[in-house]
Design a protein that fits this description.
This protein has eleven helices and eight strands. By secondary structure, it is of the alpha/beta class.
């Protein structure tokens, strides 16, 4: 479902994730793409790399556009066509958040995929509200001084049918979540962590290893929330300290030992909270 010759950077796991998502959804799918690395990979119609119709919209309006597309398809009796949004963290956490929150409040019938590379990576690597604490970016060269927005928890607070996180390093888990989301009506959102090779300062062959470290350290836990109430932690153990994840990336090279310890404590608190919610759901 994803043709060769797309415009992803060599070694980019966004293309890998997108290929598995599209293959799982199948041809009876239509996509709305916000300006992002994913939109660049898709390319402009009629020369898109994706073998499904893709409507490229403005950065702030992808959820609104998908809402209209869904209603148009329903009017034509095409309820079995899956409508998806393909967006980055800038078009989700930030500029597109208002339209997303409105669509979620209405429980629009779509699957929203946020490919989270934790910054505005195709415009110079500036920070977004998905950028983690102390990460160096083009607009925060000394390190970002605020924490990463917890998008999944915000979406869960809307009590939508399904919200989940996923990783390119855990493709079986990603495919399972896409299959599950496809079988649900209403708003579903899956946030996929995409280590950005140039933006994070990684070698071309390290994206998968870095994504796996994010999960193994608890920096990016894999979990699902159904109806805003039922939490499921998909990987229940952490096997590596957070510093193993931080020290592989140039964007964290400036951190002191005290900074790394602070991030470890923050991750520990978030993990404990998530594990407690999962245990009591």
């Amino acid at each position: 479902m994803l043709r060769s010759g797309h415009a992803a950077c060599p070694g980019c796991v966004l293309a890998l994730s997108l290929r598995h998502i599209l293959n799982t959804l199948g041809p009876e799918t239509m996509a709305v793409a916000a300006p992002s690395c994913a939109a660049l990979i898709c390319g402009a119609q009629p020369c898109s790399s994706m073998k499904i119709p893709v409507y490229q919209t403005t950065l702030e309006s992808s959820a609104a556009a998908a809402s209209g597309l869904r209603r148009a398809l329903d009017t034509k009796g095409k309820q079995d066509t899956t409508v998806v949004v393909i967006a980055g963290d800038g078009g989700t956490y930030d500029i597109g958040f208002q339209a997303l929150s409105s669509a979620v409040e209405r429980n629009e019938d779509m699957i929203y995929f946020c490919f989270d590379n934790e910054g505005y990576m195709n415009t110079g690597g500036q920070k977004s509200s998905a950028t983690p604490l102390y990460a160096s970016t083009g607009s925060t060269p000394a390190g970002k001084l605020s924490k990463k927005k917890n998008l999944t928890e915000i979406m869960a607070a809307h009590e939508i049918p399904y919200a989940a996180t996923a990783s390119a390093a855990h493709l079986a888990d990603l495919v399972r979540k896409v299959e599950k989301a496809k079988g649900i009506r209403g708003t579903r959102i899956i946030t996929v962590l995409i280590p950005c090779l140039p933006g994070w300062g990684l070698p071309d062959d390290e994206a998968i290893a870095t994504a796996r470290l994010a999960v193994d350290t608890g920096v990016f836990p894999l979990y699902e929330v159904e109806e805003g109430q039922r939490y499921t932690l998909n990987q229940t153990t952490r096997t590596r300290p957070v510093k193993d994840y931080l020290m592989t990336q140039k964007r964290y090279r400036h951190l002191s030992a005290e900074d790394r310890d602070e991030i470890q404590l923050m991750v520990d608190r978030n993990w404990t909270r998530l594990a407690e919610r999962s245990a009591t759901s």
